[in-house]
Write a structure and sequence with these properties.
Layout: E1 11-18, E2 21-33, E3 39-43, H1 57-66, H2 73-79, H3 87-99, H4 117-125, H5 138-151, H6 164-177, E4 184-186, E5 192-194, H7 198-210, H8 216-226, H9 228-231, H10 237-244, E6 249-253, E7 257-261, E8 267-272, H11 280-290, H12 299-302, E9 303-308, E10 311-318
Antiparallel strand pairs: 1-2, 1-10, 2-3, 2-8, 4-5, 6-7, 7-8, 9-10
Helix pairs in contact: 1-5, 1-6, 1-8, 2-3, 2-5, 2-8, 3-5, 6-7, 7-8
């Protein structure tokens, strides 16, 4: 769809109740696939193209491993991360660079403060300012420059869509998703971002999460599930989800995107239409439940309290959306 005024047919997927009234409603779309990649849940407009944003990072990491990148799991997880910018995260990104004789000067991401609130406050107390290592995509960018060095590709210009690295990423995205990319743009950190449908990227996550550890896909999955604190950080819901669902591969993305791949090949994909973040995880937990996942241990992620005067007076939770197939 090329009409810039076109609005996808999203449906209500979350609501916030204060007292006895529905105060706010979030619209969105949801898809789930089984181990064979067949769509088992379709809510709203799952076949519309959307930008996965940072949820593309595990696919980008697979492309880099396919291209010869070798990192221990803890650092490989950081290559697929939107980290909070803790000292450990910043040090990890610097280690990736140092491993291949590079330094921060080769990074082309945008200098920024740490993404995590606590991490940002500590960073500022130490007298630091915006920095490329502190920016939440620094692990991915460090890994991208390392992959260029390994292959003899120019490090300069590694974010150009025509660069061999980005061409390898595009090929991997299309391979894992089973969908030809017809629309692309630039993500906030400067990396090319490719539009996909929800079922397509869900299939990619299912493939990554269920692949043998000896494969590039399996190596990325094992790194992410073994080091969930690298993928986001303490107090972040994505890290909490992976800790509660052993073996799961989960990644969020700006503008209300959430992906979860399971070790048996099932996967769910969520897009919140208004781009807001608060509805993303409650809708994801509901989608996992509808996909047949035991979500009994995910109660703290399934809803959020609404406060009045410092005490709970309502809840934000997913609606009872059902399969539209």
């Amino acid at each position: 769809m090329t009409d810039q005024h076109y609005v996808p047919g999203h449906v209500p997927v979350a609501r916030m109740i204060r007292g006895d009234l529905v105060e706010s409603v979030h619209y969105g779309s949801v898809a789930a696939v089984d181990a064979a990649g067949r769509v088992t849940l379709a809510v709203g407009a799952p076949q519309e193209l959307f930008y996965p944003r940072s949820a593309l990072k595990p696919l980008q990491a697979v492309a880099m491993v396919r291209s010869g990148l070798e990192l221990e799991p803890e650092l490989l997880a950081l290559a697929a991360a939107s980290h909070s910018g803790s000292e450990a995260h910043r040090t990890g990104a610097a280690k990736i660079l140092a491993r291949y004789g590079l330094d921060v000067s080769v990074l082309a991401n945008i200098p920024d403060l740490p993404y995590g609130e606590a991490e940002r406050e500590e960073y500022l107390r130490e007298g630091n300012g915006p920095d490329r290592l502190a920016q939440n995509c620094s692990g991915k960018h460090a890994a991208m420059t390392a992959t260029c060095l390994i292959n003899g590709w120019p490090v300069e210009g590694y974010l150009d869509p025509g660069h061999p690295l980005q061409q390898a990423v595009l090929a991997t995205v299309q391979d894992l998703s089973g969908e030809i990319v017809t629309c692309s743009s630039t993500d906030g950190c400067g990396t090319p971002v490719y539009a996909l449908t929800l079922p397509a990227i869900a299939r990619a996550y299912g493939r990554i999460a269920s692949s043998p550890s000896s494969s590039p896909e399996g190596a990325v999955a094992a790194a992410m599930s073994s080091f969930p604190g690298q993928i986001a950080g303490e107090g972040r819901d994505v890290t909490a989800l992976m800790r509660l669902l052993p073996g799961a591969v989960a990644k969020d993305g700006f503008e209300g995107v959430q992906l979860v791949g399971l070790p048996d090949g099932r996967a769910v994909a969520v897009k919140i239409s208004d781009g807001g973040d608060r509805a993303r995880m409650p809708v994801t937990v509901r989608a996992l439940q509808l996909a047949g996942v035991d979500t009994s241990g995910l109660d703290e992620l399934a809803s959020r309290p609404v406060l009045g005067g410092g005490r709970p007076v309502g809840r934000l939770s997913a609606t009872d959306f059902t399969n539209d197939l």
